[in-house]
Design a protein that fits this description.
mainly alpha, 4-stranded mixed beta sheet
Length: about 425
């Protein structure tokens, strides 16, 4: 047991102090800070003035004023300026940066407004859409006047429909609550995916490296292969939890500070407020169990190869399995109660991400989350027993890599051990 503790401590501390871990953590923390402060960064680079300047050629001489008034209701950051210069000269001013674009308003055959918007690029679809929305409202107002509609009739015509969403299930989350949960679930799914695939692969690559450098021959003479295997797996788990704790802490405080500015676009669909602590707890539990499952898988796969270049090929099936589970989770993000999500959430290799998706997005009985935990624990025990046997014999195997043949040979060597 003393040897196991020494190996565990060495595995954890050596990786914790390694340059690769420090650099990776710093990069990930920087990414979290950048995403969380994206609005402030945009304001900084725009010089504190993010307003769009649009020139208007109003050939009708009547539309500009109501158009400007309506646009202020939609987006007060868009500045309109009526100009009376020819289009060629105006185009040059846009090129020089005086305006972000210009719009020409005229009347169609029915004496209703029509417009042409021109800009250096048409990538800002939000701006173009807001200009069109304001003009559409002005057109509706003019058309109503031509039809002799009163202001009350026009208001009634333009009033939005009353539309409510009500779940028939008891204690089900509302649309707002789902949006609030979706943000954290989305981010933590990425964290689970990248962490599991990175740390599990790291375990397999480290074992393959030790075999290739013949260090393994020295290690197995001082401690049993099983102790080595679980020391590496648990050491990697502690390392992953350490990094995840840093990321969650930074993400939490960043989001809390910028929550008021996280509106529209991405943040309109992915909310971050009023997140339950149980969601974070489930994320940590399923991350840890998912890692243990795949790290055990990677450990005995890494023990079957004697060259570093063969390790990536040997672990490719494991990588594909993780990717499939992640893609299923992403496709089920909009409908976490779908049948295919429910079924695949009980497949052990998919459970870490898919069961977390379900418990994070839906109001499920606690036994559902615990059933996913139970599936993973049983799978980890089975994988650990099989993996330990293969690992004991696999570390003694050298030569050309052939997965099926090497597994059989490893099992035979473990029996003779």
């Amino acid at each position: 047991m003393n040897k196991f503790g020494i190996m565990l401590g060495h595995t954890y501390l050596s990786k914790l102090k390694s340059k690769s871990f420090i650099i990776t953590t710093i990069i990930m923390l920087a990414g979290v800070l950048i995403l969380g402060n994206m609005n402030r960064i945009i304001d900084l680079f725009s010089g504190g003035d993010s307003k769009d300047r649009i020139a208007v050629i109003d050939q009708t001489n009547t539309v500009f004023t109501p158009f400007q008034q309506q646009l202020k209701k939609i987006n007060n950051d868009i500045q309109l300026k009526k100009v009376n210069i020819d289009e060629e000269k105006l185009s040059k001013e846009v090129t020089k940066g005086k305006f972000d674009g210009y719009i020409i308003i005229s009347l169609d055959s029915a004496n209703l407004p029509q417009a042409t918007y021109k800009a250096p690029t048409l990538t800002n679809t939000e701006l173009s859409g807001q200009l069109m929305q304001a003009l559409q409202t002005v057109k509706a107002s003019i058309a109503a006047t031509q039809l002799n509609l009163t202001e009350d009739q026009l208001a009634l015509l333009n009033s939005p429909i009353t539309y409510k969403e009500v779940s028939l299930e008891n204690n089900a989350k509302s649309a707002e609550e789902l949006a609030q949960a979706r943000g954290l679930v989305y981010i933590l799914l990425f964290a689970i995916y990248f962490s599991v695939i990175f740390y599990a692969s790291m375990v397999g690559m480290e074992i393959a490296t030790e075999k290739a450098s013949r260090v393994m021959e020295i290690l197995i003479s001082s401690a049993s292969p099983t102790q080595q295997m679980f020391a590496k797996i648990i050491g990697g788990a502690l390392l992953g939890l350490t990094q995840m704790a840093f990321l969650l802490a930074v993400a939490y405080f960043t989001i809390r500070q910028n929550l008021g500015k996280m509106e529209g676009g991405f943040f309109e669909f992915f909310g971050f407020s009023d997140v339950k602590i149980s969601t974070v707890v489930y994320a940590i539990v399923f991350f840890l169990l998912g890692y243990l499952l795949f790290a055990t898988f990677a450990a005995f796969l890494g023990s079957l190869v004697s060259r570093i270049e063969d390790a990536q090929q040997m672990m490719m099936p494991m990588t594909f399995i993780i990717m499939i589970g992640f893609f299923i989770a992403m496709s089920g993000l909009n409908n976490p109660s779908a049948g295919f999500v429910t079924v695949t959430s009980y497949i052990p290799f998919f459970t870490p991400m898919l069961m977390f998706l379900r418990v994070g997005m839906l109001d499920l009985p606690i036994w559902v989350g615990l059933s996913g935990v139970a599936v993973l624990i049983v799978s980890i025990i089975i994988m650990a027993v099989i993996g330990a046997r293969i690992y004991r014999g696999g570390v003694l195997l050298y030569g050309k890599s052939n997965s099926l043949k090497n597994i059989k040979q490893a099992l035979q060597l473990s029996k003779n051990d």
